[in-house]
Amino acid sequence: MTIRKGQFITVEGGEGAGKSSNLAFIRVLLEQSGIEVVFTREPGGTALGEDIRDLLLGHKHTGMASDTELMLMFAARAEHLNRLILPALSQGKWVLCDRFTDASYAYQGGGRGIDMRRIQFLETWVQQGITPDLTLLLDLPVQTGLDRAGQRSEPDRFEVEQTAFFERVRATYLERAGQEPGRFRIIDAAVTLPQVQSQIASVVTAFLETLEDVHE
Ligand code: TMP
């Protein structure tokens, strides 16, 4: 068992799931409990990672091969883990991350159709056993999410994908949540923001209680 006090929480979801506002809400919930939170995102979170993010999300390399995309995601992740996530956790800080490796399974595996075993190989290599302690999956029907997201600014290199791509992304997320019920909590993100936040508050409170039990 890894001995570290900091907890690693990730938030995942498809387009228009309301990740940004709900991440801010989770951050406040944790800080109100006296927890020091490092708030970060993937791809990104470090200077190099943010440069890789620009390559991945921008339209300069529209024909990028799927394997290149996958390996850039993991290159950014290696940097993020080694330079930000692991140091923070080892100092007892909590890390709240907007997307992590589940997104690689969902988007590169489900969406692009890359063999999941390749993703597993990279995960084992790069993460060396580090996985999130809790993952909140903001789930909603693809069309509902696309309708919400459509009201925003210029779409990035993923947002221009078709509905079928996002259906595969959603199905992969749900499949992974089903396989790892101990880590995942599925949040119904199709309802109103206050209703979503009430589900999140219950999940976070219950998670904090389990940690208190362990330390008693
Ligand atoms: P967002 O976090 O602002 O939604 O944008 C990040 C985009 O990158 C999103 O479309 C999902 C995609 N992504 C992957 O395809 N694979 C990954 O491993 C990660 C972290 C993100």
Fold and architecture overview:
The protein is α/β, with parallel strands linked by helices and 216 residues long. The chain has one domain: 3-Layer(aba) Sandwich (Rossmann fold). A five-stranded parallel sheet has the order 2-3-1-4-5, sandwiched between helices. It is globular, with a radius of gyration of 17 Å. It starts with 7 loop residues before the first strand and ends with a helix. The mean pLDDT is 94. The chain binds thymidine-5'-phosphate. The site of thymidine-5'-phosphate (TMP) has 10 residues, from helix 4. Thymidine-5'-phosphate (TMP) binds next to helix 4.
Mean pLDDT: 94
User: How do the helices and strands follow one another from N- to C-terminus?
Assistant: EHEHHEHHEHHEH
**Could you state the CATH homologous superfamily?**
P-loop containing nucleotide triphosphate hydrolases
- Fraction in beta strands: 5-15%
What small ligands are held by the chains? thymidine-5'-phosphate
> What is the rounded distance between the termini?
18 Å
Largest sheet: 5 strands, parallel
